[in-house]
Amino acid sequence: MSVIGLEFIAKTFGMEYQEIAKHLSITPPAIQGWLKGRRKIPPKRLAQLESLFGIESDYFQKELSTADKLYIQRKNAERLSREEAEEVEYTYVDDNGQERTGTTYYNPYEGVLNEIVAEEKKAILLEQVADILNNGDSNRRALLEIFLETMKRGNKDELTVLTKVINYLNDRLDPFADFDAEKEQDRKLYEALNNLVD
């Protein structure tokens, strides 16, 4: 059985359906109807859910991908960080040997948040690769295979050229950003790329 966003969001944020119903001024059976797919969540209620959780309304009714779930976990960790970060006073000795007092913020969720962000980036990348493999034409798949094979080999010279080509394609406004104009090899690569793209 698939889990729609509302169910995952409520669980992630640690909120019971009864509590959500109270916030929305509705009965818990109405929420059960949404979860079982008997009814769609009305636009008015989607706006209230968005406000309650700080998550865009399209996440509440859809089946969530791994990246979607990590996004929701990140939003919850960000909320907890805002709520539970605290100012901490500390003592230090300055350059003149004087003891001073300073303040900093301690966020107990910083490590967790960083881990979630890293996992979310990986999940998004994997979903993009899967989309190319499943929905891309044969040229896109072939390019992806060449790219992955080059990455796997790890040859420094190949990776340098690949990086320059990708940077060129990413930022044609300043294509020399990663090119050494003094090197004949880089100039030739830049010119060849310009001829191919234009």
From TrEMBL:
Mind telling me which InterPro entries this protein's record contains?
A: Cro/C1-type_HTH, Lambda_DNA-bd_dom_sf
Q: Tell me which Gene3D superfamilies the record gives.
A: lambda repressor-like DNA-binding domains
Q: Which domain of life is it from?
A: Bacteria
Pfam family of the protein (one)? HTH_3
Where the record annotates domain HTH cro/C1-type, the positions are 18-60
What this protein is called in its record is: Helix-turn-helix domain-containing protein
